[in-house]
Amino acid sequence: MSQLITGAGAVVSVGDGVEDVFRALCAGTSGLAPLRGFDRERYGAQNAYEIDDRPAEGDVPHRATDWLLRAVAQAAAQAGLGEDLSGIPILIGTGLRELRSAELAHRAGDALDADRLHFGTALRERFGADRTYTFSGACSASLYALAMGSDMLAAGTEQTVIVAGVDTLTESMYGLLDRVHLDPPERVQPFDRSRRGVLMGDGAAAVVLRRETPEAAPGALGRLRAVSMNCDAHHVTAPDPSGIAEAVREAHRRAGVKPGDIDLVMLHGTGTLLNDEAEATAIGEVYGPDVAVPLMTAIKSMTGHTSGSSGLVSLITALQAMATGQVPPTVGLSDPVQEAAEFRFAREPISGADIGVAQVDAFGFGGVNAVAIVEKVSR
Amino acid sequence: MTGSNPASGTRIQITGVGLALPGATSAAELLRQTPAPAEPFDTAQVIGKRGHRYKDRATQLALCAAIDGLRDAGLIPADSEELAVPGTSMGVVASSNLGNLDTVCGAAEQINRESVGAISPMGLPNASSNVVASHVAIRFKLRGPNLMLCNGPTSGLDAVHWAANLIAADRVRRALVIGVETRNEIVEGLLRTEAAELLDGAVALVVESAEAAAERGAAPVAELGRYRRQAGLDGCLEPLLADPDQQRPAPGIWFTPERYAPDGTAPVPASVPRHDLSRAFGRSSGALGVLQCAAATGWLAAQGSGRALLTNGDDSADAVASLLLDRPGADS
After folding, report:
1. Helices (H), chain A
2. Are the Cβ atoms of A111 and B191 closer than 8 angstroms?
3. Which of A69, A101, A136, A232 to mutate to test the interface with B (most CBs of B within 10 A)?
4. For residues B262 and B284, what is the distance between their CA atoms, to the nearest angstrom?
5. In this protein, which residues make up the domain named Beta-ketoacyl synthase-like N-terminal (chain B) (predicted)?
6. Is A54 in a helix, a strand, or coil?
């Protein structure tokens, strides 16, 4: 059964709103900046890709919740759902939910508002939404949520679901990632030999997904063909190329496409030594002789690693690329790793591309992998 | 129907229950009326010292419950942890709200007191909220979808529902559902709650399609009925219990939201006995719904007829989730 994406919203370091974000990405704009919310002296790494909305001094709780509400409102408005979302399932994928708010409460010795660790309370207050689910799925969380939303439509019980993703930097995750860097990275450089690791970014994204009907198709942003999800069951942080390859194959199989049919791959590309190698190895294995067919790009080079939201941010970027023929570049990539030597990277902004079918990758801690296939509606 | 289980007609059953909490070693014992002993559950006797390495308490408890549940379902033998079914046929759906708060807040505190050099890099996986689900998958090589619900008071019943959805959508044939919460100084401080008030334990369920259970000759102990998540007790329960044709008697027991204060207005007939598991086992947050399912299997086994109603969340929560559990094969 076909499913349409009829609305989208996004808030990341480089922009607010899908068109604003896409314009910035296509211009090669990076959200990289010195750490704003944390005490820089405590860390080796000094930079991140944050949304610059804190007050002049210090940090405040519930910023992730605010971005999520914005992204959902944008998507719902575009899809014509308005502001009353009672009864509509909203599935939120996140790596770190409102753990930043817990860190702030703990440090200040304050009580934690436990009803705001998950996002349902704020979604109920703002939109009357009461079928909300906060899934903590690490960095593939929003594509995992998309898969489950898609399953709900396929079961025939729902007409419309909203799928979202959100994450903000926590001191614990930023610090623990920093702790395992050999040499602190200054920026995220996916697939480049000189990459030194990952830096986190803030972000939220949302889409409205609905069953395809003849009336809904003309205004739709794209069609969701399939989403795969699996688990390596291999290691808590290290990725497994065979698990990733299996997720890509399963997405292709469910969508009924072959590697040669794909025009664009939105790579997960976190800029860590292991992840990029594992992803490139898996893509090379699945695509074989067709590995140079699709354009490929990794937008974390501009947004940082937006964790749980990153899969949907990439998916929305793919939809915009289909609509406009523009593809954002992989900024800072000059010397690709051996495993990606034959990839046709967008190293500079591209325009005039004919993108009909796109693959979107998202992989996370615990070896949780998800891959989505989307296509242009006119096809 | 809004919020109900998928209409695909797939019958979903519970075929195993696993426990790692003080005061009960079987589903029947979960029905105890007196408070469980304060002595913490000893995870070392189940997973040994090696099983503890670099894992937080919630993960350790979850692994213990998982072993017990998989064994109860006949999916691993008594003397090993070798899975009797393909790893790709089974997913994991875990639920916890408080599980990794100690790692997260502890690391942030240490960084601010000293620097990032002072923290152990081995804490990295525990800073991500899905750590419980991924450790369980790795230990038993469960390669299906791997989910972690952190959805507030309703999280436990929501996890059971999503396991059912994964099976009905044919993503997997079975799933291991785990509810776990733990207590420590950080959680007690953040919640302004005494340790004795909080559950320190885990509960596991093996949830399976009736077809998959029958194929491997498993004996189901319960069958999932309707589920609903909606704002307010009335909003959730009235449609769930609606029975215009008077075909079914009222549920035989109501497992209530935690610390539920009966005020006579709930849309559950006063004749239905109430059972609040948090009285014996403490506030259970994201584990409550899974704990209720386990207790309900004990209740179903002891009763000749009737079905159990399970509810998480009340009018103070963002929504209320409820599930009906019936005996296997009953027409619900």
Report:
1. 18-26, 63-78, 99-108, 120-127, 141-154, 171-180, 241-255, 273-287, 300-303, 310-324
2. yes
3. A136
4. 19
5. 47-183
6. coil
The residue of chain A nearest to residue B193, with distances taken between CA atoms, is: A111
User: What domains does chain B contain, in order, with CATH numbers?
Assistant: 12-215 (3.40.47.10), 223-326 (no CATH)
CATH entry 3.40.47.10 includes domain A3-375 = yes
Site from B102, B103, B147 to mutate, A interface, most A CB atoms within 10 angstroms: B147
Three-state SS string over chain B comes to: CCCCCCCCCCCEEEEEEEEECCCCCCCHHHHCCCCCCCCCCCCHHHHCCHHHCCCCHHHHHHHHHHHHHHHHCCCCCCCCCCCCCCHHHEEEEEECCCCCHHHHHHHHHHHHHCCHHHCCHHHHHHHCCCHHHHHHHHHHCCCCCEEEECCHHHHHHHHHHHHHHHHHCCCCCEEEEEEEECCCHHHHHHHCCCHHHECCEEEEEEEEEHHHHHHCCCCCCEEEEEEEEECCHHHHHHHHHCCCCCCCCCCCEEECCCCCCCCCCCCCCCCCCEECCHHHHCECHHHHHHHHHHHHHHHHHHCCCCCEEEEECCCCCCCEEEEEEECCCCCC
Chain B positions in Cβ-Cβ contact with residue A86 (cut-off 8 Å): 231
Each of the 379 residues of chain A gets a pLDDT tens digit; together they read 699 999 999 999 999 999 999 999 999 999 999 999 999 999 999 999 999 999 988 899 999 999 999 999 999 999 999 999 999 999 999 999 999 999 999 999 999 999 999 999 999 999 999 999 999 988 999 999 999 999 999 999 899 999 999 999 999 999 999 999 889 999 999 999 999 999 999 999 999 999 999 888 888 999 999 999 999 998 888 899 999 999 999 999 999 999 999 999 999 999 999 999 999 999 999 999 999 999 999 999 999 999 999 999 999 999 999 999 999 999 999 999 999 999 999 999 999 999 999 999 999 988 899 999 999 998 5
